[in-house]
Specification:
Length: 457
């Protein structure tokens, strides 16, 4: 079921983003008087098609990894004299450039709209408060201490750890000495201290490979919920063991359980293993055998019993925050966010070309599908954030000056503007094949990274 949800989330995400991109080409072409013959979401065999009254065939195809807009063009077949003026190849440079650039531009516009929805609806996250700092770590050397709340990174306000991570990564790609401002979390009126997070001793890859907190030597402050069961799932291992709402977990195989997270870690580490669990119920203590079921998700196997913790609104309010703004401020923040993520993506790509960042940071369809599934499970706001980030990446990728991509066509047009005539068909043919080889190589590398990640789990 989890795999199916992940696949469906991936299909929805790619379908939305491809439709947005191709709609950009389609809409601008129509507005500028170019006839569109086909608007296809996906490649391969048509699963659904409809002939519109405007003469355009609308298609949903079997392979949802792209799409295309086919326009009237004399280079691809004979064109009736009465419609020659509507052929793409007969348009001037400005019109052709606008049509080609529209796809990536619509990806950036979509990202702004997605972020606007996120900021308007509100997105919750763990407050950027430090729970512990490892002695001798980079964080300790930079002056970070337990109890500090990071209020800004590289000049950008931060209220959650997601914002801290994004801004540190964006900052270190510009300068390994990243300015950070902190304040005592328990004293809102305390003065703000300006520090410098010195990341010169470590490779950027250590931050981007999933070990952000370990690399810095910090542990986020997290709520420690009491190990008290609130509800059990019907037919689950918890119900089979006789666990009930209100039961407090005392020990597992003699090991004290001080928090709900400790209890969860113990269960997840014991799939199929019968555990001796001491509980407290109605003032008395008893021992019950609990055998966690085995569950697989995203290539990982772990124990699962089907029990949820008791809520604690006070802890939630203390450790979590919801970012929510009015419509106008949300639009400003969404535009700024789109710009920040775009610059981060470009800097990361440039560092890869200079071999300063590993190409292992490239993600292929498997990783993107996993991110799609995880973000969708986390709620609408997180899924919209994911769509915005991928849309920006898609826009930037298509603007690269590589033949076969939109950026390659724009490069052709730039050469045409300089020399006063289009590139020869032979030159374009050779360039297209070079671009195809580069693109296939890039996709192959990303897919290889995916396979390595899956088998290294």
């Amino acid at each position: 079921m989890s795999l199916l949800f992940t696949v469906l989330s991936f299909i929805v995400a790619i379908g939305v983003l491809v439709t947005v991109h191709e709609f950009g080409h389609f809409w601008v072409a129509r507005k500028l008087g170019v006839k569109v013959l086909r608007f296809s979401v996906g490649f391969g065999k048509a699963l659904w098609s409809k002939q519109g009254g405007d003469g355009t065939e609308y298609v949903v195809a079997a392979i949802p990894l792209g799409g295309y807009v086919k326009m009237l063009d004399e280079r691809e077949g004979p064109v009736d004299d009465s419609e020659v003026h509507r052929a793409f190849n007969r348009q001037n440079l400005k019109v052709r450039s606008a049509i080609v650039a529209a796809g990536p531009i619509f990806n950036f516009i979509f990202a702004i709209l997605a972020y606007w929805l996120v900021f308007t609806l509100g997105v919750s996250g763990l407050k950027s408060t430090i729970g512990a700092v490892e002695e001798g770590s980079i964080a300790a050397a930079s002056g970070l201490r337990a109890g500090h709340q990071i209020v800004s990174v590289d000049g950008a306000d931060t209220v959650t750890w997601v914002g801290v991570i994004q801004n540190v990564l964006g900052g270190v790609l510009k300068d390994p000495q990243v300015p950070v401002s902190v304040q005592r979390a328990d004293t809102p009126s305390a003065p703000v201290r300006n520090l410098t997070l010195d990341l010169r001793p470590i490779p950027i890859d250590d931050l981007t490979s999933g070990g952000f907190f370990e690399t810095l030597g910090v542990t986020p402050a997290r709520p420690e919920f009491a190990p008290v069961i609130d509800a059990v799932t019907a037919g689950g291992a918890a119900e089979a063991a006789g666990l009930q709402s209100g039961d407090r977990i005392m020990t597992v195989n003699g090991e004290p359980m001080s928090s709900w997270s400790a209890w969860v870690r113990r269960i997840q580490a014991s799939p199929g293993e019968t555990l001796s669990v001491r509980i407290q119920r109605s003032g008395s203590s008893r021992v019950v055998p609990v055998t966690p079921a085995t569950k697989e998700q995203d290539g990982r196997t772990f124990g699962f019993i089907g029990a949820s913790r008791a809520p604690d609104p006070g802890l939630i309010e203390r450790y979590f925050v919801t970012e929510r703004y009015g419509p106008i401020e949300s639009l400003t923040r969404a535009t700024d966010k789109t710009w920040e993520v775009s610059m981060l993506t470009l800097r990361m790509f440039w560092k890869m070309l200079k071999l300063e960042v590993s190409v292992q940071n490239l993600s292929g369809p498997i990783s993107i599908a996993q991110y799609a599934g995880n973000s969708a499970r986390s709620g609408l706001s997180r899924f919209l954030e994911f769509l915005a980030i991928v849309s920006i990446s898609l826009g930037i990728l298509n603007l690269l000056p590589v033949p076969i991509l939109d950026g390659g066509h724009l490069l052709y047009f730039a050469v045409e503007a300089v020399k006063g005539s289009p590139l020869s068909e032979q030159a374009q043919y050779v360039a297209q094949h070079v671009g195809l080889v580069l693109l296939v190589g890039l996709m192959g590398l990303a897919f290889y990274n995916d396979v390595v990640r899956v088998f290294s789990l």
